[in-house]
Amino acid sequence: MTAETVRCVRCGLDLSVKAFRANPRKRDGVNSWCRACHVARTRQWRQEHRDEILARRRAWYAEHADAEQARRTERQAARRRAALAEIDAHLRQEFAAERVRRR
Predict the structure, then answer these.
(1) pTM for the whole structure
(2) pLDDT tops 90 at residue 25
(3) Fewest CB atoms less than 10 Å from the CB: which of 25, 40, 76, 99?
């Protein structure tokens, strides 16, 4: 193990410091598990607790359904406004170019 490498305590591999997430609370400034081990463990945990996670999400959406629908409607309206503004800008540009050509 050198200054540029750190040993992952989960998989035991000596890896580059870039393979670890930063953690200012640790003496060497990085987490003790490499990113790959974190990802693997997170996926495993999510798989093991899938039903709990889905139940929590369903409960939250049931409680906030009206607000979620309002946000979706507002996002759709904002997209429509942006698209219309883009079309409007394009048409203004074309009309301005046409006016210049007619002079």
Answers:
(1) 0.58
(2) yes
(3) 25
